[in-house]
Specification:
By secondary structure, the chain is mainly β. Helices cover about 15% and strands about 45% of the residues. The strands form four sheets. Strands 1-15-2-9-4-5-6-7 form an eight-stranded mixed sheet. Strands 10, 11, 12, 13 and 14 form a five-stranded antiparallel sheet that branches. Strands 3-8 form a two-stranded antiparallel ribbon. The longest helix is centred in the middle third of the chain and has 9 residues. The protein is built from six helices and 17 strands.
């Protein structure tokens, strides 16, 4: 699929914080900042969790200063601490990067394991139009194991994301019931999004969770929601040269973080 065809399939809108409006239409993704900016160390948040939840009830991200892993599920926000325990942050906290959707699944896929992430990709491939649409994913079930990570809060001057990942704490959760939430993004969104599958996990009792590194699924149901709109809020640290910025300009790095200057 060409990028022109992709742009015809997915409408992308770039916004500043003062242009935000409450949006809760189905199949519309809302995102703060871009993956490219996050990779460069743009960890200052300008959108509050309260504002984020006005745009969606399912999603993932992080908190100001890259303070842990953020999971949004059933309209509530959870933070995975460094030891993988979950806390519920104040809605006044801000996020430098998050993606949410008003989750309205149109397909359900029964999954019977045991199998891992590569097999999940294969089983969902025929249900996901990977070239045309971002897909929001929710997987509820039982897992033999789930490997999750979280990262410590950073201070100025912020390092690149790769340096922070080197400080990650990994926790192995075994024989656990819970929910994985996240997105699968197609290649043309590289630079705006983390392409491929990006999942976070919370246990059924909301006690533990984090960014998913690997898992072995026993039995679950996957719910899928294809997105037709993507609204990207650009924080002050990300510069958009003019209002006619398109996906290819973001993906080629023409939106730059001030931290790279």
């Amino acid at each position: 699929m060409s990028e022109l065809e992709f742009l015809g399939a997915l409408h992308v809108e770039l916004l500043r914080h003062d242009e935000l409006r409450e949006e809760r239409a189905a199949h519309e993704l809302f995102q703060t900042s871009t993956v490219r900016a996050l990779l460069a160390g743009a960890f200052d948040g300008d959108v509050t969790l309260g504002e984020l939840l006005e745009h969606g009830d399912l999603g993932l991200g992080t908190l100001h200063g890259l303070d842990g892993e953020l999971i949004v599920l059933d309209g509530r926000a959870w933070k995975a601490e460094l030891d993988a325990t979950l806390t519920e942050p104040e809605l006044s906290r801000t996020t430098p990067y998050a993606v949410v959707v008003r989750f309205s699944p149109v397909r359900a896929v029964a999954l019977l394991g045991p199998f891992g992430e590569s097999e999940l990709e294969r089983r969902l491939r025929h249900r996901v139009d990977a070239a045309r649409w971002p897909t929001a994913i929710r997987i509820d079930g039982h897992f033999e194991s789930v490997r999750v990570r979280s990262v410590p809060k950073q201070a100025h001057p912020y390092p690149p994301l790769a340096d922070v990942i080197a400080q990650q704490r990994i926790t192995e959760l075994t024989n656990v019931a819970g929910t994985m939430v996240g997105f699968r993004f197609p290649d043309p969104l590289d630079g705006i999004e983390m392409i491929g599958s990006h999942l976070h996990f919370v246990t059924e009792d909301r006690a533990h969770g984090g960014h998913v590194l690997g898992y072995r699924l026993l039995e679950a149901t996957a719910l899928l929601d294809d997105a037709t709109e993507l609204h990207v809020e650009l924080p002050p640290a990300v510069n958009a040269p003019g209002r006619g910025v398109t996906i290819d300009q973001v993906a080629l790095g023409r939106l730059e973080s001030d931290s790279q200057r």
